[in-house]
């Protein structure tokens, strides 16, 4: 088994096409096919399903995929570590950010890192927390800013950098707007507007409801907290969201803190506890931990 074979196999799986994989690798398409065919012969099993319009991994290919990624990552990490010894940091940095993470200066972090390490190719992606956690575990991300519940996801190191109350956003004329707090059980008697499953706020809300045996009725979902506020402003329900988003719309929305229990929205800087960190990833972690104040 050769590293080149694994590299070609991984490219075909990610591109779902021999032609696009060859273009990405800057090699001829027959060469890609030949190397993968030899790999399949060596392993004694087909790794790719070529029958459909898009190439897909077989069960054997899916099983091999994380090991191929780990092997290539290990070789790349070794090369980068040697570069680091020579005073160089280059390669690729992949960072994930939970959707609508506006309380962390992500753009400033990226700009500071680029100024310090201009040779590193930076990739930034935005997704729900559960997808970012999956990316960290699969080795697709070096670090991510994720929403976390009371128990952080296993297999990850984390540093809490944002910890804010979760509130119910209601219109000023709502009777609830005259109060400072609302018990969770009382709030859940209303239709709720919330972030979708896989986000930190949704996770802590579900966790709190389950711990108190309180059923909840979520009638509307939106990935953008500002959209939640817009829906609440039109009298469509109480928006469950971090306090800063309600404060930004203070002229049209009143944020009432949820109690019994109090619910917190937490953002954590997270990275894998089970995989070695590349020099670029370690440099980013060092910069981020210095720039972000732990809570």
Automatic annotation (TrEMBL):
UniProt xrefs under Pfam families: HTH_1 (PF00126), LysR_substrate (PF03466)
UniProt keyword Transcription regulation present: yes
GO molecular function: DNA binding; DNA-binding transcription factor activity
Signal peptide boundaries: none
InterPro entries reported for this sequence: LysR_HTH_N, LysR_subst-bd, WH-like_DNA-bd_sf, WH_DNA-bd_sf
Domain of life: Bacteria
Protein name: LysR family transcriptional regulator
Key words, A-Z: DNA-binding, Transcription, Transcription regulation
Membership in a protein family: Belongs to the LysR transcriptional regulatory family.
Chain ranges of the HTH lysR-type domain: 1-58
GO cellular component, one term: protein-DNA complex
